[in-house]
Design goal:
Elements (H helix, E strand, L loop, with lengths): L2 H25 L9 E10 L8 E11 L6 E3 L6 E5 L2 E6 L2 E5 L5 E2 L5 E2 L5 E2 L16 E3 L4 E4 L2 E5 L2 E4 L6 E2 L5 E2 L4 E3 L3 E5 L1 E3 L5 H37 L1
Antiparallel strand pairs: 1-2, 3-18, 4-17, 5-6, 5-9, 5-13, 7-8, 10-11, 11-12, 13-16, 14-15
Main location: other
Subcellular location: Bacterial flagellum basal body
Keywords: Bacterial flagellum, Cell projection, Cilium, Flagellum
Length: 238
């Protein structure tokens, strides 16, 4: 196969990966706390020794995550919490502490504040938040302070990764910080609201159409190249 064929194949592979990412974004456009994902392409350029044009190949090497604010929806749920600004909630999982913007929490039978998966939500000191069942109305202040009937119960921690590029998505709404974390100072907690996905479905569908057209164009080129080579071989064998 000639260099143009290899370059097109590398582009097709990257487009397929991007299509999968875009499809996942669209599927999660209504998921609480979901962060839109993108694909970063790298270009490899190799010079040729015979004076021909250099060879350029693309590779979808890394994914990035949009940290933009999602829309807030009022639920009036006591344990529904949204973050306005930077930062994440920290939760305790069997794999270690993880970050999330999905704030649909509840109190379990032991009085711990937990995610829908049962992971405990952590405070500013990375300890579980305890909410006794026999307390009165629970109030979450904008700084994360938790109180009931004027009695202080704790303070939810808001964190951010010191190196956002090191963050690794583990599932739709959970991230491994990939290193150290630090307090998120430019954020506040809003009780009775949930943050939606930050995916723009219209833009993502538009991008999906662009990817599909680019992929079809590449496929057409490969089929033409295949036909050209077949005809050349046939001519040589005559």
């Amino acid at each position: 196969m000639e260099t143009a064929g290899y370059a097109t194949l590398s582009r097709q592979s990257g487009l397929m990966q991007e299509m999968q990412v875009v499809a996942n974004n669209i599927a999660n456009s209504a998921t609480t706390g979901f962060r839109q994902e993108g694909v970063i392409f790298s270009e490899y350029v190799k010079s040729t020794s015979d004076g021909s044009p250099s060879l350029s190949m693309a590779r979808a090497q890394a994914h990035d995550t949009s940290l933009s604010q999602g829309a807030l929806t009022q639920t009036n749920g006591t344990f529904d919490l949204a973050i306005e600004g930077d930062g994440f909630f920290m939760v305790e999982t069997p794999s270690g502490n993880r970050l999330t913007r999905a704030g649909a929490f509840s109190a379990n039978a032991d009085g711990d504040l937990v995610t829908p998966d049962g992971y405990r939500v952590l405070d500013a000191g990375e300890a579980p938040i305890f909410v006794p069942s026999d307390t009165g109305k629970i109030h979450f202040a904008s700084d994360g302070t938790v109180s009931a009937d004027g009695r202080l119960l704790g303070q939810i921690g808001l964190f951010q990764a010191t190196e956002t590029t090191a963050m690794k998505r583990e599932d739709g709404v959970m991230f491994d910080p990939g290193g150290d974390v630090e307090p998120a100072l430019n954020a506040q907690i809003i009780q009775g609201f949930l943050e939606g996905s930050n995916v723009n479905p219209i833009l993502q569908i538009s991008r999906m159409i662009e990817i599909q057209r680019a992929y079809e164009l590449g496929q057409s080129f490969l089929e033409s190249e295949d036909e050209r080579i077949r005809n050349a071989v046939k001519s040589m064998l005559r």
